[in-house]
Design a protein that fits this description.
This is Secretory carrier-associated membrane protein. Belongs to the SCAMP family. InterPro entries: SCAMP. Probably involved in membrane trafficking. By secondary structure, this protein is mostly helical. It has a domain of 143 residues. 65% of the residues lie in helices and 0% in strands. It is built from nine helices and no strands. The N terminus is likely disordered.
């Protein structure tokens, strides 16, 4: 072998002359150029900046606080309303807001929501009876007014007007409203009040259907006797009185039927009362695991 042959050492570093202006040696690695601060995009005049005004942040926080305060106040009022409703319910004080008739509310009337389901049919029948006496008295006033126009005298018209103006509200106050409250609370006292004045109501309807010339002056009631008398001279007026007689007869029959149904309900022998008793027994069978205080509370609620 030739010893003068020079084998290059692969681990030797190549000598680089720093003063040479030529290109780097063929085996040299390119150096990574350093990045100046200008290439990072910080602090230059063309950089985009986002300015967030402090007033907007304060306004949003204030609105959040106002919404939170409003929500807490609303919840507080809702709890207060519920507490009052519960107190009213426990005290047994009914909500008597006027809601009937819908076009001009003058009384409180809500059978579907306040009367027990098993008693609603009876209450609707009694309500029909009250509307019936209102219709009878109003038509009685109209028929007597026709008689007055035909020469019957103004006195009977004034009397019929008094019957209508007093009879409609008094029938509601004296027997329909006590029955409504009795059905709602099962009050024996209110049932007794209803029976007393409803019997008077039935007696008046029968008396008006006959209209004898006693107590009530002349032809101020459209009964059968007054109708027969008027047919002799004024046929049209007699027809009006005959229609009034039919209305009082229907009201008397309806009132007698309602009285019978409500009396049976009050005595516990009607189908509605039996339904109530069956529902009470079923509730006691469904809840056999209740404690003694809970059973007492359930009995109080059922009463």
């Amino acid at each position: 072998m030739n010893r003068n042959h020079h084998d290059p050492n692969p681990f030797d570093e190549e000598e680089v002359n720093p003063f040479s202006k030529g290109a780097p040696a063929p085996g040299s690695k390119p150096r990574i150029p350093s990045l100046g601060p200008e290439t990072l995009g910080f602090g230059q005049k063309h950089d985009a900046t986002v300015d967030i005004p402090l007033d907007t942040m304060k306004d949003s926080k204030n609105k959040e606080r106002e919404l939170a305060a409003w929500e807490s106040d609303l919840k507080r009022r809702e709890k207060e309303i519920r507490r009052r409703e519960d107190a009213v319910t426990k005290a047994g004080v009914p909500n008597d807001d006027k809601n009937w008739p819908p076009f001009f509310p003058i009384i409180h009337h809500d059978i579907s929501n306040e009367i027990p389901v098993h008693a609603q049919r009876l209450q609707y029948l009694a309500f029909a009876s009250w509307l019936g006496i209102v219709l009878c008295l109003v038509f009685n006033m109209i028929a007597v007014m026709v008689c007055w126009i035909r020469g019957g005298g103004v006195k009977i018209f004034f009397l019929s007007t008094i019957y209508a103006l007093l009879g409609c509200p008094m029938s509601y106050v004296l027997w329909y409203r006590p029955l409504y409250r009795a059905m709602r609370t099962d009050s024996a006292l209110k049932f007794g009040w209803f029976f007393l004045f409803y019997l008077i109501h039935i007696g008046f309807c029968i008396f008006a259907a006959i209209a004898p010339p006693v107590v009530f002056h002349g032809k101020s009631l459209t009964g059968i006797l007054a109708a027969i008398d008027l047919f002799n001279g004024h046929v049209m007026v007699g027809i009006f009185y005959l229609v009034g007689f039919a209305l009082f007869c229907l009201e008397s029959l309806l009132s007698l039927w309602v009285l019978q149904k409500i009396y049976l309900y009050f005595r516990g022998a009607s189908e509605a009362a039996e339904t109530k008793q069956r529902s009470t027994r079923s509730n006691r069978m469904i809840l056999p695991s209740l404690s003694a205080p809970e059973h007492n509370l359930l009995n109080l609620l059922e009463e």
